[in-house]
Amino acid sequence: MALWFRRVGQLLAVGVVCVATLWPFYQVAQQQLTRAELARIDAQPGISRSSYQPRLDQLQQTADFSTLASGEMAGRRPGQPGSELARQFLQRRFTELGLIPAGTDGFAQKYQTDGQSDGVNFIGKINGTAAQLPAIVVTAHYDHVGVHQERMYPGADDNASGVAALLALAAYFQAHPPRHSLIFAAVDHEEQGMHGSKQLFAGKVLQPAQLALNVNLDMLSRDTKAQLFAVGTYQHPALLPLLQPLQQDSLVALRFGHDRPATLAGRVQDWSDASDHGNFAAEGVPFVYFGVPDHVDYHQPTDTFERADIGFYHKVSDTILSALLLLDQADLTALRQKTDRCQRGDKSELVK
């Protein structure tokens, strides 16, 4: 037994020496990969035009954004009064938009979580003109941190901005019927484990085989070098030829990135499961996630409506509308084809 312990100790000592020897080389390699990935992202086209004719109802969208980010709704944390006000607001807005109820109780899908407050998703649908096509699901989470340790986290950018954009897009497509049926889902509990989007599938509200794509909206209103990221083209390369024309004619700097594993991107964060689109990916549903980079007010009490860059926000929303129009007209079957890419790499656990 003593001999066995001695041999184990020797092996451990060799292992420690090997790690200590190789660690500096690993660090250098990570730095090189990080620089290369940042250079790849920066080399993508920037803003190609500045003027545009708004197609979304910007006044209504701004009003919805302001309401969801208001002190009255107090950060919309499940189990707090602000969340109940947000649920009443979403019920009213989905009704006003004339969406087809697609929850388990009208628009609502109520669910329970272990050890947390109960949640409610809101799901509405617009039937497409080509009924045989699988649906596109547009998601945005409406919950946030709420009141925590006597401080209120309003969650304006994260993610009142995404929900207000979802409502504006729903209004547009009610007036301009799409080819694919569109399902609009305002989901709960993203900040506490993404339970809401999990329940879309666990509660059989959505069937993966009947879905073409998830378009997830999370953080859209803060101007960080005018960048908007489209995450998911690494996992689904067939998205690139569909979205690249938009990159060449964009009101914002549309970037493809933040979806590569550390073996390729070094320390550049991988957002491929950082929000509710991760649960769609887990069900085999292709996704594209639109969001801005993190900023100093991310998950802070200072993430307020007043700090949002409203002009930039409307340009982002119009860009996402253009993306949806391109995707709606495309053949999305190629997105379902499995590639080796989506099988490689560790995923970040960062939740947006």
The share of residues in extended strands comes to: 15-25%
Tell me about the biggest sheet?
9 strands, mixed
For this structure, what is the CATH homologous superfamily?
Answer: Zn peptidases
Approximate helicity band: 25-40%
What assembly state would you assign to the polypeptide chains in this entry?
Answer: single chain
Number of domains: 1
Describe the structure.
With 352 residues, this protein is of the alpha/beta class. 38% of the residues lie in helices and 15% in strands. The protein has 9 helices and 11 strands. The strands form 2 sheets. Strands 1, 2, 3, 4, 7, 8, 9, 10 and 11 form a 9-stranded mixed sheet that branches. Strands 5-6 form a two-stranded antiparallel ribbon. It is globular and about 65 Å long. Mean pLDDT is 91; it is low at 339-351.
Features:
nine-stranded mixed beta sheet, 352 residues, Aminopeptidase, 9 helices, two-stranded antiparallel sheet, alpha/beta, disordered C terminus
